[in-house]
Write a structure and sequence with these properties.
Strand content: 25-35%
Order of helices and strands: HEHHEEEEEHH
Low-confidence stretches: none
Distance between the termini: 32 Å
CATH architecture: Roll
Number of domains: 1
Radius of gyration: 18 Å
Shape: globular
Helix content: 25-40%
CATH superfamily: Hotdog Thioesterase
Number of strands: 6
C-alpha cells in the first residue's frame, strides 16, 4: 500500500516521458517521506526493495516492453535478488533510483540497480527476473528479445552475477524442530 501513489504517479508520468531503449540507464528522483521511515527514523529496508521495483517498472514502461509482455499475457517475476545497504537515508533526503538492464542468460533477465545521491551510493542490488506465461512456464529469452532493440555487444552479465544466480540458497533454511504444531 505504501507505494501505490508512487506507482500510480510513475505510470502516469511514463506515458509523457520520452521513449527509451531497455538498454538505457533509467533514473528516478525521489525524496524520503515520513511513511518511508522505520522506528530508527531512517528509510525502511523494505522501502528500498519497493523502490527498486519502481525503477524496473519505469524502464519497462518507457521502453514499450511492458505493453509487449501484457499483450502476450506474460508476467514478470523476481526469481532472486541481492542488495547491499551502504548508508541510511533519512527524512527529507533526496535520492535517485538508477536502473540498468545488465544482460540476460538462457532463462533470466538481470538488472543492476542503485540508490544514490550526490555521487554517494546508499544501496545497490542485482535482481534476477524471469518472465512466465501462466500455465506454460518460463518464456524463452529469445522471444522476449525480439520485442526490444538489439543488445549492445558490450552488455554481458558479470561472471559473479551468473555464479550467484546458479547457486541459490538451500531449499530448507529453518530447522523444523523450531516450528511448533500447537
Amino acid at each position: 500500500m505504501k507505494m501505490l501513489f508512487r506507482l500510480f504517479w510513475l505510470m502516469l508520468r511514463a506515458r509523457h516521458r520520452p521513449r527509451t531503449s531497455v538498454w538505457d540507464t533509467h533514473q528516478l528522483d525521489y525524496r524520503v517521506r515520513f511513511r518511508d521511515l522505520d522506528l530508527l527514523r531512517h528509510m525502511n529496508n523494505g522501502v528500498y526493495l519497493a523502490l527498486l521495483d519502481l525503477g524496473r517498472m519505469d524502464l519497462t514502461l518507457r521502453a514499450g516492453f511492458w505493453d509487449q509482455i501484457r499483450r502476450h499475457d506474460i508476467v514478470p517475476v523476481v526469481a532472486n535478488l541481492t542488495i547491499r545497504y551502504r548508508k541510511p537515508l533519512k527524512l527529507g533526503n533526496r535520492f535517485q533510483v538508477e536502473t540498468r538492464l545488465a544482460g540476460v542468460d538462457d532463462i533470466s533477465v538481470f538488472f543492476e540497480q542503485r540508490i544514490h545521491h550526490g555521487g554517494v551510493v546508499y544501496a545497490e542490488g542485482v535482481v534476477r527476473q524471469r518472465f512466465l506465461r501462466p500455465g506454460a512456464g518460463t518464456v524463452p529469452i529469445d522471444e522476449l528479445l525480439q520485442w526490444v532493440d538489439p543488445r549492445p555487444e558490450d552488455r554481458v552479465v558479470a561472471p559473479w552475477i551468473l555464479q550467484w544466480a546458479a547457486n541459490p540458497p538451500p531449499p530448507k533454511l529453518l530447522d523444523d524442530s523450531v516450528v511448533s504444531n500447537r
